[in-house]
Amino acid sequence: MLLNQFLLLAAALFAIGVYGVLARRNGVLVLMSIELILNAVNINLVAFSAVRETVDGEIFALFIIAVAAAEVGVGLAMVLLLYRNRRSIDLTEIDLLRG
Amino acid sequence: MENLLDGWGLTVATFSPMVGVAVMLLIPRDQEDRHKLVALVTSLWVALVSVLLLIEFDIGHTDRLQFAVDKVWIDVISSHYSLGIDGISLPLILLTVLIVPLCIVYSWNHFPEPHNPKAFLILILVLETGMVGTFAAQDLVLFFVFFELVLLPMFFMIAVWGGPNRRYASLKFFLFTLFGSALMLVSFLALFFLTGAESFVFTDLADAVAAHGVSRTAQLWIFGGMMLGFGIKVPMFPFHTWLPDAHTEAPTVGSVILAAVLLKLGTYGFIRIAIPILPEAAVEWAPWIGMLAVIGIIYGALSCLAQTDMKRLIAFSSVAHMGFVMLGISTLTDFGINAAVMGMVAHGLITGMLFFLAGSVKERYHTLEISRLGGLLVQAPRMGWIFGLCVMASLGLPGLAGFWGEFPAILSAYSPANGVPVETFRTFMVIAAVGTVLAAGYLLWLLQRIAFGTPPEEFADDPHITDTSREEWIAWAPMLALIVAIGVYPNLVFRLSDGAVDASLHECLTVNASELTADQAEALGCADVYNISVGDGHGGDADHAAAGG
Amino acid sequence: MTELLTLAASTATGLPLGITEGGSWLLRNAWLIPFLPGLSFVGILFFGKRMPRGGSELGVAFVGLAFVLSLLTAAAWIDHRDNFEGEEVHRAVAVAVAEHGGESAEGHADEGESAEGHVPGHPSLGVHNTVTWFEMNDVAFTVGTLVDGPAVMMLVVVTLVSLLVHVYSTEYVAGDRRYTHFFAFLSLFSASMLLLVVSENTLQLLVSWELVGVCSFVLIGHWWEEKPNSDAALKAFLTNRVGDIGLIIGVAILFFTVGSALPGQFGSFSIAETNALAGTGQLSHTALVVASCCLMAAVMSKSGQFLLHTWLPDAMAGPTPVSALIHAATMVVAGVFMIARMYGVFFEGFSIGGSSINLMALIGGITTLIGACLAFVQRDIKKVLAYSTISQLGYMVMALGVGAWTAALFHLFTHAFFKACLFLGAGSAAHAVHSFDMKSDMGGLRKVMPHTYRTFVIGSIALAGLPPLAGFWSKDEIFVGTGGWGLFGGTGGNGAYTFMLVMGVTTAALTAAYMTRCVYLTFFGEFRGHGTPHESGPRIVVPLWILAGLAIVAGFGNLPKGLPLVPESLQERFGHFVEPVASYFPGISHGTPSWSLATASTLVVLSGIAVAGWYYFVKVEAASKAAGESLTELPDGLTTKYPLARMGHTFLVQKYYLDHLYTDVIAGGTKGPVAAAAYKIDQDVIDGVVNAAGENAVKAGNLVYHRFDQLVVDGIVNNSGRASSGAGGELRKIQTGKVQDYAAILFASAMVLAGVLIVIV
Predict the structure, then answer these.
(1) Which residues of chain C have a CB within 8 Å of the CB of B398?
(2) Residue A58 lies in a domain
(3) What is the DSSP letter of A87?
């Protein structure tokens, strides 16, 4: 069935995204990796929706795209501010919350 | 006016301080005089309302809940906004509303460091709401809320305005009491769910326990949880260690409120909640409470003898004195619990006064080290005499309030309630009586070392050491007058408390077993539980014959 | 117990208490008498400083008024005792059964009073007046007055001595740093004692008992700037508190024990009910025994009985008028009065009737002996009198212990006068020489202080008990009351207390001897102090003469029955008016006086005076002349030369040692080693125990506090806090602050949860 391929693709995308989030030190790249994760979810949603012949999944995917856009906006703004303050966007250096 | 008082009196008394707080929040911090005025007026208003309540109080029916309000509060958890007072709560409410304005007057011109009267007075007013609310609440959830409300202001008072070791002390105080409260809450919930009562209102719970019957084991556990929660607040040996630290570090006014009112929340809980709702468990626990009480009496007294700090000594004396209160409670007799109510009022006035005095000594000498003090009577004769009077009151001299808490408590231990082991309590009686000697010992020793003799060289010509000031007189005179008045005419308290205490005790506890016929005992339906021996009709006599042996 | 309920329902079979609510106005309102000094206390406290004489005038006026009132009350009582015809409101308690009910009342009436033609069933009703103090559990706790013989007698004695002490003090403490305060507490002291005397119930008794204690604390520690004074005050108060344990427990036991016999009531403090019920045999005997022992402990502390007497000599640290008041009329006799009041309980509890020894008599006997011995070795004139007080109180307790109730109270009555006279005289002498030390600062005062000298000698003779002075009559009655004098003929008494009689007679000799010594050292020889002493002013001398006069005549108040030349109407007046004839008083029997016993005791006293007089007035006087200075003892007594080794040689030279036997061994031995040893035991062992107990309590306190409280109990608390803080420290390391670490944890846990989900589903 076609669904399996979609799911495999999504899983791969998700794994890449997780790798990016955890391993990259650059803030922008981490944001982009988060986008990958979100899109992996989108693919899943659309795929399931197609199989079940409803539109729920697509609607959710649309919502996610919208939220992701906003999130990237906020995220980039934060990265920008970070850069202004610290001249660096290396996430490993930002540990003000250390207990 | 009457109707208004009937429905709203208690609510007004409880929440007026919060109105005062709201007003004070609006006033900028540097307008100190206005803050003082608002706080004083608020507390006096509360006192006035309480006095009106006293005037309207039906003395003939102290056992009845008066000025009662009962509205559904949080329907989901069947909690009611239920307030009301009877002869047990009234004296304690009056004590509270008396102490608070006196504390405000006392601190009028000398707020402890870091000053900030606004915050300090707000805390006092919040405390007042919590204290009055606890004594007026007739619903477990409401009671718990007020009970906990008291904790925070006192924590801040110690942590911010306290002595050098204030962090440790305030944290200890907070954690200790919170720990007790947690267990207490569990007990409350268990009580509610196991009985399936209609609501958290005390009477509903008591009825439910009596009607459905909770298993004996469960009752014991629930009572144990409450005992821990209330016992820590009292404080009962061995849960007392927070008290000396908290007292030593707390600012004077904090110590006074702590000693005068806060400790009573615990004993009040026993009298109002634990014993009336769970009489059977109370009978089982009584010997243990009694034992801890007398250990507390002796132990507190011995610890007092070892102290070198005046305030710490007074703090330890609280352990001993509350031991007498607990001993009275543990007898489960009308007599003993009346003594306990009296003991609570008396201890509030007397120990409150002693802490006031310790504060004034500290302010003049800048130390409370007993070995460095002396000759107070020479340098400040009036204060010395007041100190002497309070010491005498504290050691239980007849004619002053303390006696009426101590003596009836000892007396009642001779003949505890049905089902409570008699011989054990007679032993307790003797031990407690020995405690009175130790009390006289450490208190007189304290008096001798602080008030008698000649002033030590380092303070001999200190111009700061002056006699009682005007604020001190205003703050102390009512308390001293009450100590004497209650001592001479104890009926002031007993008249209020007696009926209510009688009503709060289960009939099986108070009935004179020696005069019961078998049929009557059968009708009561509690002969087995409380070991009321009937049948030959001489149970009581045998008991009394054993008295001598 | 069902019968009990029926009986309670029909109160027909009540036990009459022998008290009435009627009687004349004065008798019903005796509360005024303690009230007046109480008022004076408040008045002096608040206005004293502003008054021209510092409040002393208030004290004198109110106590004087109380005295007048007491005299009127006494007159009213004398009338009431024989002529009360009003409606006899016997207050009765309904009690179960009447196996023994009323036996004691009737028995007594038969024996004691019918002889005088007193109709049985018309007893001397005590006048009872109460108001409710407070109520608890439907029991009314009352406060009120029970006015009968002993109460009236005590009212008169206390107010009289107190009045004289007040007057005396206006001169004695004039110019004192706390003049006003002194008078305030003098008044309160009197008020408390008067309240105790009229107490109607044991609770009120307990209250006034402790008030007396605290007043003595304040007054003994009057000059609290000096540490020894405040130490003495503390010691007095604490020792009394030890006894108070007994009082509290005893009162509690009686409260409930009486309650067990009263249907529908769980307890009663009423003295009349307690005594009456104790007499009926309805109360558990065990309870009565325990209660008696407990109350006895209270008596031992308050009345300075052996084992708990050590506070009393120390209490001399207070001003002399206070000592007089404490030792003559108030504090220390409170214990004796309490026994007299609760005699029904003690009589049953100690089985006084028909016995030959009991705890009370024994303690009294021992006290009387050791007190007298100790009086020998004192240098301080007030301490001589203090030990003498202990000894005399021992007499009273012993008398009560052997059942000689009237004799004990009569001795209390006479003792109050001559002991007050002696104390005030000692104060007068000390006032003149500014010291209490007889050996170094007194001597020869008879020439400069004639009034003090004469009154002191009168007091001494009265104390020694030579006829016809007061002490003789009362002491003789005690001897008669022991009943242990078969040797001298005579009958009666409650038992055969021969042992007590021996102790009493021995003490009589000792008393005579040490008072002779005291008089010699103070008033004879040459003055050994500094300055020029002179006689005190009238406000000191007049009270002295009044008391001396009473010390002479007071004994005539209770002339023995059958004394020739005395009309019968003047015999045993004291006993007639003071001893209650009511069911709240046990049926005691009275001994018949005996000439031979009186003669023998007088001879004993005379020999005591003779031995001591010979030693001081002959030997020491001669030695003083030889030495050219005023000596206080022989320079070559037994204590200095210890003749054991040269015994054989000197045996004949010393005329068989008869001289030594009399002077050194008997007088000196009693005066020296024996008394010193007794004193040493007193100071080191008994006092040592008291002190050690105090020190060890502190040590135990320290131990408990430092080792247990701070380490164990507090340790648990601290460790639990430390444990949670440690756990927090470990957890803190996870908190790196790096977003990606958190994300890693997030993903990892998501995976774990997903795994769990898969496994479960």
Answers:
(1) 206-208, 210-211
(2) yes
(3) S
